[in-house]
Design goal:
The protein is of the alpha+beta class. The protein has one domain (24-158): Transposase IS200-like (Alpha-Beta Plaits, 2-Layer Sandwich). The protein is built from four helices and six strands. The strands form two sheets. It has a four-stranded antiparallel sheet with strand order 4-5-1-6. A two-stranded antiparallel ribbon has the order 2-3. Helix 1 (51-61) packs antiparallel against helix 3 (103-122). The longest helix has 20 residues, at 103-122. It is globular, with a radius of gyration of 17 Å.
Length: 173
């Protein structure tokens, strides 16, 4: 397939000039395929995970085996997306060794693992679970980290007004 500027007009979310191999923290949002509510539902302002949501949550909690230099921090699995904080401390970069774990490779490993496990449960090999892309935001300071942790913690309470809630999607006439 040839590159067509009319069709392929994605812009980079990367900070220009930032060295992504250096220690940093990211706030990530990963949406389900077609924003389908596959991970559970909000009941009384609390997220009730179904089996697929449990897979997504367990994978985030148990992802510490990727590298001792990567921390999977606060997170929430919502009906059709998940938010989490990934802290990367590239000690190898200090020693002058190019790190192999980037935020892209970390998220790709998470989505691949969870997709495989969910598809085993629902007997749908090859079926997508997550959208191909994800949103990342580099956390620049402690105040921002604290604010994002609050957003993650309170996400189920605000679900009724969330732009990712399928009931809030506006269709233009």
């Amino acid at each position: 397939m040839l590159f067509n500027l009319e069709k392929h007009h994605r812009r980079s979310v990367r900070l220009r000039g930032h060295d992504y191999s250096q220690p940093c923290a990211f706030f990530v949002t990963i949406c389900s395929w077609l924003r389908s509510s596959v991970f559970g539902e909000i009941v009384n302002s609390k997220m009730e995970l179904n089996d697929y949501g449990m897979v997504a949550a367990r994978a985030w909690l148990h992802n510490t085996n990727i590298s001792p230099h990567i921390e999977f921090n606060h997170f929430i699995v919502m009906p059709n997306h998940m938010h989490g904080i990934v802290i990367i401390n590239h000690r190898d970069a200090i020693l002058g060794v190019r790190p192999t774990q980037t935020i892209g490779s970390i998220i790709r490993r998470y989505t691949t693992t969870t997709t495989r496990q969910i598809n085993i449960i629902r007997n749908t090999p090859g079926m997508p679970v997550w959208q191909n892309n994800y949103h990342e935001h580099m956390i620049r300071n402690e105040f921002e980290l604290h604010t994002i942790r609050g957003h993650i913690r309170n996400n189920p309470v605000h679900w009724a007004f969330d732009k990712d809630n399928p009931l809030n999607i506006q269709i233009d006439p």
